[in-house]
Amino acid sequence: MGLRALHFAFKEGRLTVPDYVQALNERVAALEPEIRAFEWFEPARAMADAEERSGGILKDLPLYGVPVGVKDIIATRGIPTRMGSRIFANHVPARSAGLVRRLEALGGIVMAKTVTTEFAFRQPGKTRNPWHTGHTPGGSSSGSAAAVAAGFVPVAIGTQTLGSVIRPAAFCGVVGYKPSYGAISRDGVFPFSRTLDHVGVFARSVEDAAWFGACLMGIDPRDEATGIRAPMRSLSVPLAPLGHAPRLAVVRTPKWSLASEPQRANFEQSVAALRDAGAVVREVALPASFNDAWAVVGAIMDCDAARGFASLESRHRLQMSPALTDLLDRGKRITPEQHAKNLARREEYRRWLDGLHDGCDAIATIPAPGEAPPGLANTGDAVFCSLWSLTGLPAITMPSGRGPRGLPLGLQVVGRYREDERALQVAAWCEGVLGVRMGLAGD
Q1: Is 318 within the bounds of a domain?
Q2: Catalytic residue among 164, 180, 193, 205, which?
Q3: Quick check: is 149 in a domain?
Q4: Is 140 annotated as catalytic?
Q5: From 59, 85, 113, 140, the catalytic residue
Q6: Is residue 326 part of a domain?
Q7: Residue 71 annotated to the active site
């Protein structure tokens, strides 16, 4: 059941919150030992929260009774928040993140804390891909993507600095939505790179992702990114139809050679289907100045992290993974002048892409190199996501087929900065044309 359908089923009394949560608890009990999406989960507490929300005027709230998976770098009052690190093994926040308070005020339930990689970087957690447990679910929002794919929760929250929402969503065959930079407050979210970190959501349809994302958005004085530049336009939900076939710019990026043959073939088939349905499609090559964009985003992230982790590293470096300490060491070598130059380059990229959107409704590209790689030692490559994180553009991935191993493949739609509604409308149109329904992993 999708989020919107669930909302009306609760509101009209066709389903009770306790009955729904009990069904989820039973599904988690059956499948979680193998998938391992949750870092913290207490079935009895979930049922108590469900009982508390039963009946009354709360039924009018947009997230009334909705169980949510919350990535374990997001603070939850009275619930462990471990950051994927043994440093925080016993950490229980006294205050919830702003977005958690917001979802609870709108009637939502923190069903579980979902597994994250170490501090949302590369060191994998315990989660496995629910379509094939010998493969990675992606990361860093590993548990959030897997939990939605397996039907443990209808929606979940993740974060993305490079590709940590879009890539795991693609690997797990769900919809991932990374809003424009600053759309959702990061107050109470453990920072990795303050100039790149985004909060995003996972759902099983574009409409659900839009509904859930709209509930979490808003200006927050505790996060300056929510108020920068032009105010974020509010999303209208339910999402209105686009009303016309979109104009799509097909962007392969200079990294196209890293995509697998099945992913490339699936992309070509998807674009052909969209064109046949009426989309105006044109190929767009990024200018040569974008060749350095991947080095630029990496340097910005490294420098931000080195500054942000300085105090924690001074006390706990030996408890950090080699991948993280190597990054911090790289970041320390970047001078303030180099960092300022990289931030200026980002603005150049954003301006060029803004101009591109004068002639199109959205960009069509791929979300990942292909199917989820085998093994659990790494979470895959963010190379097809990081440009859109660098520039802060809204990005949505949706299932577009399966690869040779039967694992999901995806299509990514990228919109104009802070015009998320149009990007979501285009994504919903594409979703309707492609008609790929993955179902629930484990069924």
Answers
A1: no
A2: 164
A3: yes
A4: yes
A5: 140
A6: no
A7: yes
